[in-house]
């Protein structure tokens, strides 16, 4: 009986880990969904994670050949790798080969094989590499193009950030990502009630260089600042609630 039970559990986990996502066939425009703005779902400590990326592959596109832009037919787009996943995260595709024919619907699914722990808290930028095979290319016949998708990220938050566990006194400022930054900085804080919060950014001399009011909702709050025009230096960022304030450092490293 124990052997039978063990076998059934093994089969269950095998099926679970190898289950395929179902492509979203309601998409009408070729592209990748969610997009850069929506991005991927948030992950929480102690909770299983699963998120889906849907693709509608274009049937044709244009490429540059000898300085001329010419139309070509897409045979397939292959997802060749996903780099930067958190510990114990993996991905699978439908089709399982991660080779998506031109004009077809497809999807990729990212899952946690083990629930994230507190040591996994943070931002994880992902780098996906693709290989596109184009046919009917004038003078060449076929062409393989390599591309990189680098705007997706997974944010793992501590379980205290979940709405079920925060209380009215919760007020926590997370580490900014990335740090150092040379473009967009992602700020995040957790608060236990709906409240107006003030954010201030200071340079190394204590001069205020940015100030904004954030109408925060109970739980995790995020906002971005484009710091590409800032001078390379150490900065301090602070958030002020009605009865407390928190500060941390960020280093800007622009070319």
Which short descriptors sum up this protein?
single chain; 255 residues; mainly beta; Immunoglobulin-like; 2 domains; four-stranded antiparallel beta sheet; 1 helix; 19 strands; globular; disordered N terminus
Question: What's the gist of this structure?
Answer:
The chain is mostly beta strands and 255 residues long. Helices cover 6% and strands 52% of the residues.
Describe the protein.
This protein has 255 residues and is mainly β. It folds into two domains: 23-157, Sandwich (Immunoglobulin-like), CATH 2.60.40; 159-252, Immunoglobulin-like (Sandwich). It has one helix at residues 2-17; strands spanning 31-33, 43-44, 50-56, 60-65, 68-83, 89-94, 99-101, 105-112, 122-125, 127-137, 141-149, 153-157, 171-173, 184-191, 195-202, 208-216, 219-226, 233-240, 245-252. The strands form five sheets. Strands 4, 5, 7, 10 and 11 form a five-stranded antiparallel beta sheet that branches. β18 and β19 form a beta hairpin. The protein is globular. Mean pLDDT is 84; it is low at 1-18.
- What CATH calls the topology of the largest domain is Immunoglobulin-like
Largest sheet: 5 strands, antiparallel
Helix run count? 1
- The oligomeric state is single chain
- Give me the strand/helix succession: HEEEEEEEEEEEEEEEEEEE
- Euclidean distance between termini CA atoms: 66 Å
Radius of gyration: 23 Å
Q: Which structural category do the helix and sheet elements fall into?
A: mainly beta
Which architecture of the largest domain per CATH? Sandwich
Name the shape in a single word.
Answer: globular
The beta-strand count equals: 19
**Stretches with pLDDT under 50, minimum 5 residues:** 1-18
Helix coverage percent = under 10%
User: Strand fraction band?
Assistant: over 45%
Query: In the CATH hierarchy, what is the class of the largest domain?
Result: Mainly Beta
Number of domains: 2
Mean pLDDT: 84
């Amino acid at each position: 009986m124990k052997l039978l039970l063990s076998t059934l559990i093994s089969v269950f986990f095998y099926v679970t880990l190898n289950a395929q996502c179902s492509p979203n066939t309601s998409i009408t425009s070729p592209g990748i969904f969610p997009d850069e703005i929506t991005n991927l779902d948030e992950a929480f400590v102690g909770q299983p994670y699963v998120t889906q990326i849907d693709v509608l592959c274009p049937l044709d596109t244009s490429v540059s050949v000898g300085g001329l832009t010419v139309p070509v037919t897409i045979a397939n787009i292959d997802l060749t790798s996903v780099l930067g996943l958190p510990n114990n995260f993996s991905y699978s595709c439908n089709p399982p080969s991660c080779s998506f024919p031109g004009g077809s619907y497809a999807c990729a699914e990212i899952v946690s094989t083990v629930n994230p722990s507190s040591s996994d808290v943070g931002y994880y930028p992902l780098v996906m590499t693709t290989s596109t095979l184009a046919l009917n290319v004038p003078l060449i016949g076929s062409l393989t193009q390599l591309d990189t998708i680098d705007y997706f990220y997974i944010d793992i938050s501590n379980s205290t950030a979940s709405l079920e566990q925060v209380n009215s006194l919760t007020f926590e400022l997370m580490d900014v990502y990335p740090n150092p930054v040379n473009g967009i900085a992602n700020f995040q804080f957790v608060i236990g009630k709906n409240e107006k919060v003030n954010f201030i950014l200071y340079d190394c001399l204590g001069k205020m260089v940015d100030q904004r009011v954030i109408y925060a909702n109970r739980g995790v709050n995020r906002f971005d600042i484009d710091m590409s025009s800032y001078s390379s230096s150490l900065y301090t960022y602070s958030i002020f609630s009605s009865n407390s304030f928190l500060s941390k450092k960020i280093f800007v490293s622009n070319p």
